[in-house]
Structures are given as C-alpha cells and as structure tokens.
Amino acid sequence: MDERELHQNLQVALHMLDGLSKMLGHRYEVILHDLSHVENSIVAIRGNVTNRKIGGPVTNYLLQLLRRYGDSAPDSINYRNVTPEGRVLRSSTMFIRDEDGHIIGSLCINQDLTDFIVSSKLCQELIAFQEPVKEDQPEELFAHDINEVMESMVQTELEMVQKPVAYMQKEDKLALVGSLEEKGIFDVKGAVEYVAERLGVTNFTIYNYLKEIRCGKK
Fold first, then answer.
1. Which of 55, 62, 162 has the alpha carbon at shortest distance from 106?
2. pLDDT digits (tens, 9 = 90+) for 153-190
3. What is the spatial distance between Cα 59 and Cα 161, in angstroms, rounded to a whole number?
4. I need a surface site. Which of 119, 149, 153, 194 has the fewest CB within 10 A?
5. Which of 38, 68, 57, 50 minimizes the C-alpha distance to 134?
6. Is residue 112 predicted with pLDDT exceeding 70?
7. CA of 169: how far to CAs of 35, 53, 174, in Å?
8. What pLDDT score was predicted for residue 116?
C-alpha cells in the first residue's frame, strides 16, 4: 500500500480489495489507482497478472479515456487485453468520483483467460468479451514506469508518419503533437521535454504548437 493520503472514497475502495481478490481467485488482479498522481497512480494491488507493482504508472488507455471524456469518462467493462508475454486478459476499468462528480481514481480488474482458451472450446461462453474492440482503442501498455508509457505513445505516432524526423515538415510535427495532445500525453510531467527531444525542436516550439492546437479548437 502506498503511504500517500487517499481521498475517503478511495479508502472505501481500498477496503474492498482483499475481499474481491479472495472471491475472484488467483487468476485475477485487482488494482486501485489514485489518478491525482498519474506518474505513480497504483496505490494498491492484489494478485499478479500484469506484473505491475505499487507506485507504477497509469496506462495509456486510462490516459486517453480521461483526456477524451474528462469527468464524464465511462466505465469500460470486459474489454480484451494482451500482455507483452502474449497472455490474453479480460479487463474492466471502473472510475471512482468525489462528491462533486470529479474522477479521482479507478478500480481495475484483470482476469487471465489464457489457460481457459488453450484448454477447451467449451469455455467459449465463459471467455466471451462483452464489448467489441473499438477502432480507436489503443493496445494498452502495462508499464512499470511512466516514461515507458510516453515512449510507446510517441513511437507509435512517429511510425504512423512514415518518414524520418529529419524530413518532417512543421505540418507533420504539428499533426503529431495534436494527436499526442488528444491522447492525453501532455498531462504527464516531462512530456513536453520528451516530445521536443524526439522531434528535434525546443520546448518553446512544442508549447507554441500546443497553443496553436488549443486555440484552433475554440
């Protein structure tokens, strides 16, 4: 358990973790995130499916949900995930709000379905996913450090441009920064500096891009 002081609603959820873990069993992992600290949001974890630890960061999927919907972000129930080791998961993310309706944390549950899938087709009903994979849903990265999340998000965008950074024009870089802004990367401390380094520009240039992008949305 992280030693930070938690909001009382997160403390209530924290007291449920042991019971949930015991009821669900060893194939499940239950994680509590304090989303006021995205860099080290994991404050409690029961079970071990994704090999993450207390103090680990928020995932890119959570960042994108929060950026896109803010406090109106919907819960995601029974969506499909795959770990870097290739294990198939069924995951659920449920947001926790304060008295004013602001999102302050999330309760995430990951179930390892791999053995069920391998063992028998009779388990199809058991492993059915409730929600189809959305076209714009990214492959969720279970990182141990927030820098891994940033690096993965930026690398994915760079690969989509399909040209070396040295040949990218301002329009390319502006579009890339706009896409990263939409996905919530600039809510992470140090993201401006990292993106500036990868694009070979100054921090001031990135801030100008963001200003241009945000003004254009008004």
1. 62
2. 999 999 988 889 999 999 999 999 999 999 999 999 99
3. 23
4. 119
5. 68
6. yes
7. 36, 41, 9
8. 82
